[in-house]
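A common beginner's mistake is to predict each chain separately and then try to dock the pieces by hand. The better habit, illustrated here, is to supply every component at once so that their relative placement is modeled jointly.
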Amino acid sequence: MQVKQGVRFKTFSPVMLWMLNALYLYSRRVSYDIVITSANDGHVLPSRHVKDEALDIRSKNIPSSDEKLRFIDIMHFMLGPYVTIILEDENKDNEHFHMQAKKGSDFPGILRP
Ligand SMILES: [Zn+2]
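With all components supplied together, the output reads:
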């Protein structure tokens, strides 16, 4: 797992750590690099990036559209109902995954009872 140069993390919120954990675990299972291209940088309110609750992930290095769908499915499976994942600007220059805390969801934290 890699972080693009210039990406800024400000605060590690619980949901941010939850997302990073899933990305790290999945990165060990795939042949391509999982690259974070934005955290708390390059966005303005009301973007969840500014609240340390969103990440952008490079998608254009993923070898097929099936693999991109699989990435979304696996992330949904690992992250549960607390996180939304979308492929933004599909087939355009700026295509990337955006993942963020789901609106209205109250993330319970990393440790489960
Ligand atoms: Zn984003």
